[in-house]
């Protein structure tokens, strides 16, 4: 201690580097281990925690909670959960392909002689210690494994966000915490179809290498279509909850032009879903509009272009196609692009062809299988049940959305029980059946009336033809024969 104090106080600072160099060499000669240090704070920047340190901390949290005696608790998910890590000067072991390594948590002693704006005493680090003979395995593969695993844990446990795009300047996306409770368990649809979608999503999320091998950007397009209230939004939330992805809900009508659309795309992160709901409502992007444009030939096209430039452009079909699968779309990786529509036939075929929208999912009216899921979720009722056969028959005879069924199944007061809810549903289905019957009859009548009108019209026309001898009708139009 005396010698060390003398050394610290009186040994010239300039020579210490040389002494350190030789002592390190001497120690290394006898010391059989290799140490890799990961500091907590970035050397550059202002109190930034190093990403590697944070990722390792996540990776070690599992072993820390079982091996270390003293633990630190850090808040995660905005204080909703805690991450336990080993405290300073604790050690834990880990094993990789049969090789044992040691992780030590420590901190550099404070340098009391320097006055620094940085908190010197906060120089924490993790030291990875392993035997020299395992150098290749640990440096080439274990470190990467730890970082990958740590990242995967962080992604799994992170608080997910729901973003929407802002109109005009400033930040492109603003987000809130995504907390939608819909899952594939709560979703009412044919179990086989449901399983198929879940398998598809899970295979996609594990296919990074496969997509790289086939030379495709790691993304997949889904088109969800069906009448309102059949669960398109619920399905999107269930998908996000299954894969633990963020959602970017893109409001196309707020996007100024194709350039802004591209900027929005660049601003999204991986492990996310970009959702455009009711794409048919962006009429500009549908085949209908394209057709209408062609028909409107008599409009002065030059004026239209000038007007567009004055307005600052707009999102076009080709802009959206580029957004989905252009060069920029590969940025970030691991992304789902999801369109929803109530009217599939309104969409331009180019937009929904396979490769762009890889999977088309129809969400339709409630069938008996879907009803069983809802009955179980809402009322804890399972088959066999006295009311089920009647409900099955009525569901086959009517087109009712899962949203309508769900509304009837939900108890409205504490006095209501499963039976009263099911009875209410039966009544509602009977009314719906009756209404549908009346509507069909009215439509039939209207059709018949139209037919009669058509026939009268034909008679009138025939009358006109009879007066045709001079080839001129009463109104003066020349009509052709036949
Ligand atoms: N398939 C379903 N499974 C479970 N619940 C459903 C389903 N479909 C609808 N619902 C219920 O109905 C409500 C409305 O459904 P949702 O918003 O998902 O329908 P949507 O098809 O997106 O409708 P829209 O086209 O009008 O946006 C949901 O909150 C949910 O409670």
TrEMBL record:
**Compositional bias (Basic and acidic residues):** 439-476
Cofactor names from the entry are: Mg(2+)
**What Pfam families is this protein classified in?**
AAA (PF00004), AAA_assoc (PF14363), AAA_lid_At3g28540 (PF25568)
Q: Which InterPro entries match?
A: AAA+_ATPase, AAA_N_dom, At3g28540-like_C, ATPase_AAA_core, ATPase_AAA_CS, Mitochondrial_chaperone_BCS1, P-loop_NTPase
User: Residues in domain AAA+ ATPase?
Assistant: 218-367
The record, for CDD domains, names: RecA-like_BCS1 (cd19510)
Q: Which UniProt keywords apply?
A: ATP-binding, Hydrolase, Magnesium, Nucleotide-binding
Query: Which reaction is recorded as catalysed by this protein?
Result: ATP + H2O = ADP + phosphate + H(+)
Matches recorded under Gene3D superfamilies: 6.10.280.40, P-loop containing nucleotide triphosphate hydrolases
Q: Which GO terms describe its molecular function?
A: ATP binding; ATP hydrolysis activity
Q: Where is this region: Disordered?
A: 439-482
GO BP terms: namely: response to stress
Family, similarity comment: Belongs to the AAA ATPase family. BCS1 subfamily.
State what protein this is by name. Answer: AAA+ ATPase domain-containing protein
């Amino acid at each position: 201690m005396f010698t060390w104090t003398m050394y610290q106080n009186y040994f010239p600072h300039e020579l210490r580097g040389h002494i350190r160099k030789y002592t390190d060499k001497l120690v290394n000669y006898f010391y059989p281990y290799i140490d890799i240090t990961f500091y907590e704070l970035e050397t550059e920047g202002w109190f930034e925690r190093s990403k590697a340190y944070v990722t390792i901390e996540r990776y070690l949290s599992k072993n820390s909670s079982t091996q270390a005696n003293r633990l630190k608790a850090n808040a995660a998910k905005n204080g909703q959960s805690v991450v336990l890590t080993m405290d300073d000067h604790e050690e834990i072991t880990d094993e990789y392909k049969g090789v044992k390594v040691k992780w030590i948590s420590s901190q550099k002693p404070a340098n009391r002689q320097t006055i620094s704006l940085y908190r010197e005493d906060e120089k924490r680090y993790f030291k990875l210690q392993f035997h020299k003979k395992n150098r290749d395995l640990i440096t080439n593969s274990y470190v990467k494994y730890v970082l990958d695993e740590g990242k995967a844990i962080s992604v799994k446990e992170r608080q997910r966000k729901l973003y929407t795009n802002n109109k005009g300047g400033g930040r492109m996306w603003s987000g809130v915490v995504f907390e939608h409770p819909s899952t594939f368990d709560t979703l009412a649809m044919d179990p086989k179809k449901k399983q198929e979608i879940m398998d598809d999503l899970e295979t996609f999320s594990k296919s990074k290498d496969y997509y790289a091998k086939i030379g495709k950007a790691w993304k997949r397009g889904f088109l969800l279509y069906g009448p309102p209230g059949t669960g398109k939004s619920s399905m999107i939330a269930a998908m996000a909850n299954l894969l633990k992805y963020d959602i970017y809900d893109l409001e196309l009508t707020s996007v100024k032009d194709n350039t802004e659309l591209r900027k929005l795309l660049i601003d999204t992160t991986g492990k996310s879903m970009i959702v455009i709901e009711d794409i048919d409502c962006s009429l500009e992007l549908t085949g209908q509009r394209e057709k209408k444009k062609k028909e409107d030939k008599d409009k002065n096209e030059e004026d239209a272009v000038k007007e567009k430039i004055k307005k600052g452009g707009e999102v076009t079909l080709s802009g959206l196609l580029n957004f989905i699968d252009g060069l920029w779309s590969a940025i970030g990786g691991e992304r789902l692009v999801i369109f929803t529509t109530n009217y599939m036939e309104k969409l331009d075929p180019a937009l929904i062809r396979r490769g762009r929208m890889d999977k088309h999912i129809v969400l339709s009216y409630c069938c008996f299988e879907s009803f069983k899921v809802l009955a179980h979720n809402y009322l804890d009722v399972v088959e066999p049940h006295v009311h089920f056969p009647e409900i099955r028959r009525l569901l086959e005879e009517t087109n009712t959305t899962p949203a309508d069924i769900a509304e009837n199944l939900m108890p409205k007061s504490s006095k209501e029980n499963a039976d009263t809810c099911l009875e209410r549903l039966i009544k509602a289905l009977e009314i719906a059946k009756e209404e549908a019957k009346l509507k069909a009859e009215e439509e039939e009548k209207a059709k018949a009336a139209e037919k009669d009108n058509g026939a009268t019209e034909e008679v009138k026309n025939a009358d006109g033809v009879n007066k045709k001898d001079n080839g001129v009708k009463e109104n003066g139009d020349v009509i052709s024969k036949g």
